């Protein structure tokens, strides 16, 4: 059985390496190509790339595991994410695509911040780069942890060996193929995830005899298992839904918007991306529910709830199909790791090396530094992943909140408020990041529980960041005329585009 599964996985690895080679040959001649694909991303590739890099191992392991343990009430996180993703496409994607190109072709988020506010002190670039590197290293480690668990649960390999296999494979095609390779592999990985999250719960559903058997089994385990509000407090509901706020500040997701070919393609990407997300999220929730019923009815056992997808893949399918399904988990993990490595690398290269070490570095040198940065961040993430007690969901939630609170309000305000200032952006970014860290790590408890047990840290972080950015902007010098003029041109461009589309539809 293991041999057949390994054949499928090796075929998947070979495909990823082939795409990496294609990217190496076609889009790594300069930094713009290596980091942003020269802004020529197809909307379908951009949409599935954003979705796959967003969901990671959380989609196939973290969410089904949470549903398996807590019931349908754990799915409120998924509801919040779907809402957040939609508004991210609607509010951020069009303006960020245009504005980053208008601001002297900004290719990273720190680069955009600096050029948006004409920050000659470079403090915005440095601070945002530090936030990216710190939180992405943590975020990347969550993917490596998922890879270690996958190889341990599926093949009986040591957890540590699984870490290195996962990291080595994703580093190889990311390091050589750059943004184009990462985006195309994400597209393929997104397709694999889609098929897997439809196939696994559907086959398990049929095998158990349908809805009546599953619902009666789950109710016999816990009468409240299918109750959306079971054990859910108001603060708990707000915490789950607030995951959607994180989308506005996730660099590895919004960088896809910057790379899509045209403004018109953004709408196409939104339709494709949201359709993909709805199906895959429903599949992940169904996997947790049907998985618990299957384990109960068939008398199975599961040591780690986050491996329910792996368990169903092994007991329901032929080994070759199982290998394909395990490749779906690996695809989810690798798509996110590769995107995070690339964004971290671009920040280290553009925002540190080029800005402070060697301003006149050649394109060839910068691409080399980018590749070395990918390797360095990966090694640190592997080191953090050796603590196998880390929950995938908890690692992701901490990093997600950090980005959402530090960058989310600043991205939104910089795209919609012409009078926002550099000092306001700095204040908001610092306030958001510090609030999240304090909320997680401060030795403050209420009835023996830490603050995160009551309220997800992104809520206070996002709110305080928003307030700080607005208040400080109001009490500092107004932006220069050239900044507000460029903002007005961006807004006018989008307004004219929308008017033209409306006119074409009416005719």
TrEMBL record:
Signal peptide start-end: none
A Pfam family: SSF
Main location: membrane
UniProt-listed PANTHER family: SODIUM/PROLINE SYMPORTER-RELATED, SODIUM_PROLINE SYMPORTER
GO terms assigned for molecular function: L-proline transmembrane transporter activity; proline:sodium symporter activity; sodium ion binding
Name of this protein: Sodium/proline symporter
Spans through the membrane: 6-24, 44-61, 67-92, 124-141, 161-180, 187-206, 226-248, 276-297, 317-345, 366-386, 392-417, 424-442, 454-476
GO process terms (BP): proline transport
UniProt GO cellular component terms: plasma membrane
Subcellular location: Cell inner membrane; Cell membrane
Topological type in the membrane: Multi-pass membrane protein
Function: Catalyzes the sodium-dependent uptake of extracellular L-proline.
Similarity remark: Belongs to the sodium:solute symporter (SSF) (TC 2.A.21) family.
Keywords, sorted A to Z: Amino-acid transport, Cell inner membrane, Cell membrane, Ion transport, Membrane, Sodium, Sodium transport, Symport, Transmembrane, Transmembrane helix, Transport
Swiss-Prot/TrEMBL catalytic activity: L-proline(in) + Na(+)(in) = L-proline(out) + Na(+)(out)
């Amino acid at each position: 059985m293991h041999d057949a599964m390994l054949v499928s996985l090796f075929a998947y690895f070979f495909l990823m390496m082939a795409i990496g080679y294609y990217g190496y040959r076609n889009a790594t001649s300069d930094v713009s190509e290596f980091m942003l694909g020269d802004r020529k991303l197809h909307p379908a590739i951009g949409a599935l790339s954003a979705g796959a890099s967003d969901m990671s191992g959380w989609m196939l392991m973290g969410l089904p595991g949470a549903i398996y343990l807590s019931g349908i009430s754990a799915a409120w996180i998924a509801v919040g994410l779907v809402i957040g993703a939609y508004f991210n496409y609607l509010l951020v994607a069009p303006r960020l695509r245009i504005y980053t190109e208008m601001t002297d072709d900004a290719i990273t988020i720190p680069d955009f911040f600096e050029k948006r506010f004409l920050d000659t002190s470079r403090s915005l670039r440095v601070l945002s780069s530090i936030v990216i590197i710190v939180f992405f290293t943590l975020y990347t480690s969550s993917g490596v942890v998922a890879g270690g668990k996958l190889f341990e649960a599926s093949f009986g390999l040591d957890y540590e060996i699984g870490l290195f296999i996962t990291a080595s494979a994703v580093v190889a095609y990311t390091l050589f193929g750059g943004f184009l390779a990462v985006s195309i592999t994400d597209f393929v990985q997104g397709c694999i995830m889609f098929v897997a999250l439809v196939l696994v719960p559907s086959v398990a559903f049929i095998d158990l005899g349908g809805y009546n058997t599953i619902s009666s089994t789950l109710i016999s385990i816990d009468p409240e298992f299918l109750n959306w509000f079971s054990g859910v407090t108001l603060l708990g509901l707000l915490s789950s839904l607030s995951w959607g706020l994180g989308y506005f500040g996730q660099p590895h997701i919004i960088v896809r918007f910057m790379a899509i070919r045209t403004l018109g393609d953004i709408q196409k990407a939104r339709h494709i991306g949201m359709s993909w997300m709805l199906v895959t999220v429903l599949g992940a929730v169904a996997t947790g529910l049907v998985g618990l019923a299957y384990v109960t009815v068939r008398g199975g056992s599961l040591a780690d709830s986050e491996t329910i997808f792996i368990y169903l893949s092994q007991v329901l399918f032929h080994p070759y199909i199982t290998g394909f399904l395990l490749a779906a988990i690996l695809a989810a993990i690798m798509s996110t790791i590769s995107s995070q490595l690339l964004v971290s690398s671009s920040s280290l290269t553009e925002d540190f090396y080029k800005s402070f070490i060697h301003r006149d570095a050649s394109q060839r040198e910068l691409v080399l530094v980018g590749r070395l940065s990918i390797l360095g961040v990966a090694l640190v993430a592997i080191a953090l992943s050796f603590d196998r007690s880390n929950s995938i969901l908890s690692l992701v939630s901490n990093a997600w909140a950090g980005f959402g609170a530090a960058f989310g309000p600043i991205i939104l305000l910089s795209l919609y408020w012409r009078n926002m200032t550099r000092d306001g952006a700095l204040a908001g970014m610092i306030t958001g990041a510090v609030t999240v860290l304090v909320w997680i790590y401060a030795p403050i408890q209420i009835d023996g529980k830490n603050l995160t047990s009551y309220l997800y840290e992104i809520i206070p972080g996002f709110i305080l960041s928003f307030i700080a950015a607005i208040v400080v902007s109001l009490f500092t010098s107004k932006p220069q005329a050239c900044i507000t003029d460029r903002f007005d041109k961006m807004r006018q461009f989008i307004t004219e585009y929308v008017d033209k589309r409306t006119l074409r539809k009416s005719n």
